[in-house]
Amino acid sequence: MNVARASLEMKAPRVAVVSDYTLATLGGAENAFAEQVRALANVTRVLAVCPPSERLTHLGTYSGVETCAVPVSFVVPGLGFPVARNTTRLRRLLWRAFVSAGVEVVHLHSEFGIAAAAIAVARDLGIPVVQTVHTFFWQSQASVQTLLSFLGPAFYKAMTGFAYSGRDLAARAGDSALRNMTLSTALKVDAVVSPSAHQAARLREAGLRRVHVLPNTVQWNHSARPIRDVEGPLRVLWVGRFAPEKRVLPFLRSSVAALNRVGPGALQVDLIGSGPEFRAAQRLAGSRAGIRLHGRVTSEEIPNRLAQAHVTALTSIGWDNQPMTVAESIMALRGVIWSDPKLTEGLSEAGIAAFGADTTRLADRLTALAGDPSPVLAASESARSARTTFGTERFVNDILGVYRSATHPPTSSLLRRP
């Protein structure tokens, strides 16, 4: 056992947390990355590695955090996705950063060129690699399925230099291609972390053997108080990307239907975020009393917005594995109205079910809660115990265990050197 691996047995290792995604995008994976960097910095030195942004610079001001801003070739228009290839130049940059920071374990949050380069450097340095998978339920519109199935493998190979697994992972060919990108990288690491049990089950079915379930973490919201009563309208908050997979338009239609029944004096719906369906959402909401679209806000503003709400709504189905919205809501002692029964972490205690894609069912739930908010009060109280699921102490303790286990990969491992 080399010195870097031996040190894992004695103390918290110095960690490089790596992502291909830019923190300029306020998405769940990006927020999970930032929160985990801060949590780990409480016990060890952390090197945060991702494309440059003001948010990455700000992250570097935290005690215990260093940053490495990775240059990218271009950003995909409309998606905000930075593209960087696994090149000799990139590997040299990461090698210098890892050695300078004394990195002893690499923790990935993505699967493309930067992640691939980090794996290659870690192999050269003899240090373990762990990957948190956020993306095994990727899906896209029907119109691009054929295009994705043809271009996906070539794009992945060009970005990473890795072999493409090419397994049958979804009913639609394009969705399968997207998920194979995630799987192909996960097959190269020493241990995989899934924030949810249901995604972990799918990863194991796909052939991964060392999968640990560890929910995302959020900093403790010490000012949070449970909802004791509802004065005035029931205030429902929706936070996310305005995109088809988040089902923001169906949520708005349900909200309009509920408001038509109970009126704005009994129900107030607020939506935070931006994305390709924002204009359509504006048209749907119009100037209707009881619905407000606030656009994009910073992650630092979210706790205050949650404090002003009575309950939040999560309306995706089949897309999310363990949304940061759930962790943030429960940490703020707010229950969550949710539509996907496969999501369980925290929600089995503090969730209010509105299962299924039928907008009438969600409208009925909103209407009922506006008339009788007692389930909202109960969910808020249940969040007091549910929030330990997402606490930083639990996350740090568990992820350090994963790091230690990754130092002893089994001889039958699926891993291959890149």
Automatic annotation (TrEMBL):
One of its GO terms (molecular function) is glycosyltransferase activity. Residues 27-218 form the Glycosyltransferase subfamily 4-like N-terminal domain. Keywords: Glycosyltransferase, Transferase. Pfam families: Glyco_transf_4. The keyword Transferase applies. One of its GO terms (biological process) is carbohydrate derivative biosynthetic process. This is Glycosyltransferase subfamily 4-like N-terminal domain-containing protein. It comes from Brevibacterium aurantiacum.
